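Re: Re: ligand-bound prediction request (bumping)

Still looking for help on this. To restate: I need the protein modeled with FE2/S2 (inorganic) cluster bound, output as structure tokens. Inputs repeated here so nobody has to scroll up.
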Amino acid sequence: MIVQKGSEPEAVARGVAAIVARHEAREGALLPILNDIQAELGHVPAGAIPIVAEALNLSRAEVHGVVSFYHDLKREPPDRPVVKLCRAEACQARGAERIAHLFEGDPRIAVETVFCLGLCASGPSAMVGDRVFGRIDEARARRLIEEAGR
Ligand code: FES
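Reply:
Sorry for the wait, this slipped through. Here it is.
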């Protein structure tokens, strides 16, 4: 991790510049850069937009438009750990709704609905950070909530 949540703006700028440097030579670099910033910081801070725009020779409005368009790219840091719970058909057939109330009822975490995490045969599935978990039963859901909520 190059940048930590809560880092000073200068540290964020250095971290964003390092992420940009990793990708700027590739075609279609904007989304990989924004995804990496999101992964590192949990959001795409406003201060990242001019850095990315300048590096890719785009306008700030273009970069801002992409950040606004994609639901997974957040403009503010999350106030709680986020659990992404799959509610697509395969996971529903395997009991996603039976465990959903456990996640949704816990104030320590925020729950986002997603539609497929690529672990359909092992559903119900959920994602915390960059880790995907399958075969979530009640006991596993409670463990995930405990770990995510720390
Ligand atoms: S349907 Fe849930 S992981 Fe694919």
